[in-house]
């Protein structure tokens, strides 16, 4: 769950797992510094004005002191607004590495997730079930009894990653735990990993051609192709123009593997912190597994207290950044 804390009356968001944007921390420190500076400068200038004052009041004039404090607070507020605008402009939007967390269905079971992470690092492989090391196979399971909306019509064997900066991982780690790996984005892209296509839907889609209706239309076109006659041909080489007699089978294969397998419906009416709001995952996926090497592994994520344990078990990864979250 995402909660808010207040610093000098200002709201800053923080997640239960303790992930707070580094730039928000910097902004908070600057607000505190500006507030303290405002108070100190108010007292200082009050004494200066008292020193040159011709009245007979002993000590700083209360009216002048209050006035200076008000002016200083207003000034610090303007500093906050300016810094906050800069913070929004400079805030990271994507990450240089794509992250895979291993705790799907067991996000709170640190021991189980730690063992899974050790297996991933030992095999140098992010894999789908039954987790056989290697690049795996490109396979799809088609279930005509299910639909695109429930993601059961086409069930590809895939591995998934998220494109989320470290400071914004709070929602994601609540769903997938705190153990994972960060792999170089360009390395993954070179092996076919790519962003999925999100299709937003809502309960109000009855009177529109978008959302659920769009998914139903795409599904109807695909189901029609399932019943069409196909000429058996020899496999086509990637990049070659298909012959007329293999056009239908080629189109259907491409439609299944490169389009339907990368569709992700999500309920657009859900809040950003809802576990079912999949858009917040910024998902990339690859058909099959991902094998990585030492140079493509950029970061390892573990829960607090597991860093030294990981180094003891896998000392060969001691030179990789291990981030306790």
- Give the termini separation: 15 Å
- Sequence of strands across the biggest β-sheet: 3-8-14-15
Order of helices and strands: EEHHEHEEEEHEHEEHHEEEEHE
In angstroms, what is the radius of gyration? Answer: 28 Å
Largest sheet: 4 strands, mixed
Structural class estimated from helices and strands: alpha+beta
Describe the protein in words.
This protein is of the alpha+beta class and 325 residues long. It contains eight helices and 15 strands. The chain has helices at 22-52, 62-90, 110-123, 170-176, 185-190, 212-226, 247-259, 307-313; strands at residues 2-7, 10-15, 97-101, 125-126, 140-142, 154-156, 158-162, 180-184, 194-195, 197-201, 263-267, 283-287, 290-291, 297-302, 321-324. The strands form six sheets. The protein has a four-stranded mixed β-sheet. Strand 1 and strand 2 (10-15) form a beta hairpin. Helix 1 packs antiparallel against helix 2. The longest helix is centred in the first third of the chain and has 31 residues, at 22-52.
